[in-house]
Structures are given as C-alpha cells and as structure tokens.
Amino acid sequence: MTSVLAGLRVLDLSWGVAGPITGMLLSDHGADVVKIEPPGGDPFRSSPGYAAWLRGRRSAELDLTDDTDRETFLGLARHADVVLESFAPGTTERLGIDADTLLAENPSLVYCSITGYGPHPGHRSRPGYDALVAARLGLLHEQRGHLGGAVPHIHGEDPYLPDLPVPEGMEPGSPRSGPIFTYTPWPSICAAYLATTGINAALFARLRTGRGQHVETSLLQAALSLTASKWIRAEHNDEPFYRTWIYDQRAPKGFFQCADGRWVEQWVPNPRFVLSSADGEELAHRRDVGSVRDDPDRIGTPPENIVVLAHYFPEMVDAFARFDSDDWVRVAEEAGVPLQPVRTPEEALADPALVAESAVVDVDHPDFGLLRQVGILYGLSRTPGQVQGPVPRVGEHASEIRAEARAAARTGPAAGPPDQGTHAPPLDGI
Predict the structure, then answer these.
(1) CA–CA dist 295, 287 (Å, integer)
(2) d(CA 268, CA 255)
(3) Where are the alpha helices (DSSP H) in 180-280?
(4) Is 418's pLDDT higher than 80?
(5) Which of 358, 331, 353, 356 shows the shortest CA–CA distance to 343?
C-alpha cells in the first residue's frame, strides 16, 4: 500500500535535532526527502542521532552562498512540496531563500521554519540550542520542582508542610539546590512533532486551496506545550484533585534498587503491595487485589499523601533490596501492579515486544552496518509508513539531484493556482 506522503518532495536544509527528526518522520511516511548539505556535509553529522534521523534521504552538497549552487537550489524549490529549514532568523533572507522568495516562485510550497524562539523580538537572535533555551526558560529549575509542587509556587502561596522531613534518597535529583541538567534534548524532540504537525496541516489545507504557506515552530513553543501542566494559573486552584504531591520536589518517582544491583520503577508507589510481597523468606503476591485501579491502598494524588510516602519510603527501600529485580517484575505482573526494570537503551531496543510490533527496526548504515533503531513512530492502517533506506553519505546523490534541477529549469516555474480567497483553518468543516 502507498504511504500517505508518497510523491511529495521535501528539501531539507535543517541541522541539529528538531529538523532531522522532522525529516525522518516525513521520509518514513513516503516523502522523497533531499538533504541539502553545505560543502563537506552537515557539521552535526557526527551526532549519534544522525545514524537514525537521516535515514531514507538523498543527499546533495550545495553552497548556497555560491550563485550557481543557489540557482540549483531555487530550481529544485520551484517544484518542491516542502522546504524545511532551521537557520538562525535572518539567514534565509541574506541567502535569498526565505519563505517570501520561494513562495513567490512556487505558490504551492509549504515552507517550514524551526527556530529557538520564533519571532520574539527580544530573543529571536539567541542561539537555538536545547541546553541554552532550557536554561533561559527556567526548564532546568522545573526539573527539580518546588516545595509543595507547581500549583502553590505559580500562585505565590505557601507550600504544603514545607518543613516536612523526608528520608534520604526519597527526593529525586542530586542532593543540592539549584537546577538539574537534562541530557535528553526534549524541546527539540517536541519541536519536531510540532513541525511535522504544521507541515501536514498545511499540506492538508493545500488539498482544498491549492496553495502552500509558511509554517513555523520553535523550541520555545515546544517548551510551553510540554510544561503547560506546571506553568498555569487557575481561578479555583483549590478544587479537589487539582493540587497533588506528584510535582512536589520531595516526591519520589518510584525507583528502587534490588538485591541484584538492578533498579526497578514502581509507579505510583504502592507500599502495601511492596511490603506484603516481601513479608517472608520468598517474594510472593499475598494480596487479593486483581488490579491496581481496584486497590484500596493505592496512594492517591492529594498533597497530604507526601506524608504517607515519607513514612513508607525507607521500608520500601529495604523490601526491594531483599530480592532480585526479575522476581519483582514477575510478582508485580501477577498482582497487576505497574513495575518495570530500568534498562539501558541497548536492552530496551532488544525487547521482543517492541521488535514484534516494529517499534524498533534494523536498518543498514553505510559505516556502521546493521543498526537497531526506532521504527515507525505512528501507524496508519491504510497508508502505512516504512523506512525507505539507510542514511546517505554526504553528497551521495548530488549528480542525480543536480540533473533533476536542470530538468526542472527547462520546464519553468511551477504554475501557481489562482487565489481562491479562502483562508479557513485547515480543519474547518471537520
């Protein structure tokens, strides 16, 4: 069956994390993604993620500061469906490849820009790197959280029991004050999904109007979309179930070390399950509860339960430490309690369940051979995606892509549709 984006041409000028992941998502669903690289190749080529994110593309080297190479790119853009770029604001204008220029030549084009801060006048020129954006927006402080959680902090109220002593090891993060650095570039990962959504929405609108448009997203938008559960103010913030201990900086996240040195995560921490299962010489399920949702001793979400967790945490630490992680996984499965081992990425990629549903796949790499990596991230039943091929070498397809540009020049610019006067949102009528 044909993939949903089959037949569409994408010119990928992006670099870093967000743009390459966006290109991977488009390629995995059938688009012909052409990576336009500067002479010598994308300077981020050595990033480990590129061994997966660049898969299924073709590659050509073009020097966009050179008149001949820029004209080659413009020839490709006149017949492309999507241009994806992540330059610093103002760069595309200086190069003569900005959205206004390309849309004037190809009115059907969808032009997607990914930046650090979008058009924000005070920040648009700042570097768009995850760590810098996260630090400037306060995300690294939010990783630690606040006493009492986000709700009292954002409302300027006193936290719940600020002097409550908690056992050593219960509060996550390093034993100091201040921000916690996150290794995962999650603002860029989220921005990739936002960019993909924007591109597909514009392509969907084009089916009705015949016209393309400029879509934008940023690491700032990504940060706001994923931190909305903390950065909000509510008029009636004392309503039941709104406040919770879960975001309290003292709250445990369910990680416990077992007798074999391995760690497991049991969430939400269920002291009665843990202590009753470990109450004996052998680990065993000793309660008549078939589902965690039916468990009367399940820890609820109200803020006062931080006291319950503080009381039971040392006993749970001792209980987990008496038995191996495999035994805890087995007993938790019998009890219907959510508990899983903490695994390395290599272990997770070898999970039989993930392999069986193609959540991970094996793809050839020109330098590293067969690599196990993430598979198709979202499934469509009638237009399924598939990995189109390996990561290309730098400039591997330059000759054929330049030939396509020359052929496009002979046919002239793409004919733009007449302006139908409709500016309805893409999901209007659905």
Answers:
(1) 10
(2) 10
(3) 186-209, 219-226, 271-277
(4) no
(5) 353
User: What count of other Cβ atoms lies within 10 Å of the Cβ of residue 390?
Assistant: 20
pLDDT at 334: 92
CB–CB of 73/95 below 8 Å? no
Compute φ and ψ for 338, nearest 5 degrees: -70, 115
Q: Taking 70 as the threshold, does the pLDDT of residue 164 lie above it? A: yes
Q: Considering only CA atoms, which of 406, 399, 395 is closest in space to residue 72?
A: 406
Which pLDDT belongs to residue 314? 97
How far is Cα 340 from Cα 192, in angstroms, rounded to an integer?
A: 28
| Cβ atoms of 375 and 24 closer than 8 Å | no
Tokens of 288: 């008549």
The per-residue pLDDT for 387 is 95
Residue showing tokens 């306060």: 138
Shortest CA distance to 8 belongs to which of 34, 30, 41?
Answer: 30
Which carries the bigger pLDDT value, residue 325 or residue 244?
325
- CA 13 from chain center: how many Å? 20
For residue 212, CA distances in Å to 103, 130, 336, 426 come to 8, 29, 50, 12
Q: What is the pLDDT of residues 247-275, one digit of tens each?
A: 899 999 999 999 999 999 999 889 999 99
What's the CA gap between 376 and 361, in Å, rounded? 8
Q: Is the dihedral of CA 124, 130, 134, 135 positive or negative?
A: negative
